[in-house]
Amino acid sequence: MTEATAASRSVVVERVMPHPPEKIWRALTQGPLIEAWLMKNDFQPVVGRRFSLRTEPMPHWDGVVDCEVLVLEPHQRLSYRWDASGLQTVVTWTLTAVEGGTRVRMEQLGFGPQDDNNYKGAAYGWQRNIGALEKVVAGLI
Predict the structure, then answer these.
(1) Between the chain's N and C termini, which has fewer beta carbons within 10 Å?
(2) Which structural domain range is residue 57 located in?
C-alpha cells in the first residue's frame, strides 16, 4: 500500500501480527534480532543515537544505510532517519494493540518524484522484510 503527497511519497506497509506489542518491539530494537530480519547493525534504542545497517554491496550501492534514532516511545513508536546512497528518508514504526495481536505499521517517507527506482525498491523490500520480521517475532519466547 502506498500514499502520495505533493512534496514526497511514502511506502506504507501494515500488517496485524498475532503477538503483543512488547514482543514486536524487541525485534525492532534489539541488534541481534534486527540482524535476523533486516541487516547487521549497531543499533541502540536511544534518541539521537547514530547507527548503521550493513549488508552486501551491490551495483550502485555500498550496502550501508546510515541512520539516526529520532523517536522512541517504547512498545508504540520508533522512528529513524534512513540515509542510503545520499537519499534521506524517515522510517517510522507504529505498534497498536488490537484484538488478537498488534497492528504493525511501517512508513518510509521522503521519496521525491525523481526517486522512482528507490521508491519501487523500498516498496518491494519492505514487504519482504516485514515478512521476515514476523517470522523472527513468531520464534521469540
Answers:
(1) C
(2) 2-138
CATH number, domain containing residue 99: 3.30.530.20
Collapsed DSSP state (helix, strand, coil) of residue 37: helix
Q: Which one, of 101, 99, 83, lies nearest residue 91 by Cα?
A: 83
User: 136 near 37, Cβ under 8 Å?
Assistant: yes
Three-state SS at 115: helix
C-alpha grid cell, residue 1: 500500500
Q: How many domains does the chain have?
A: 1
The grid cell for 93 is 514504526
Give residue-wise pLDDT tens across range 44-79: 999 999 999 999 998 888 999 999 999 999 999 999
Closest listed residue to residue 138, CA positions, set 32, 30, 17: 17
pLDDT, mean of residues 99-106: 98
Question: E strands along the chain, which residues?
Answer: 2-4, 9-17, 40-41, 50-54, 64-73, 77-84, 87-98, 101-111
Mean pLDDT, the chain, whole residue set: 93
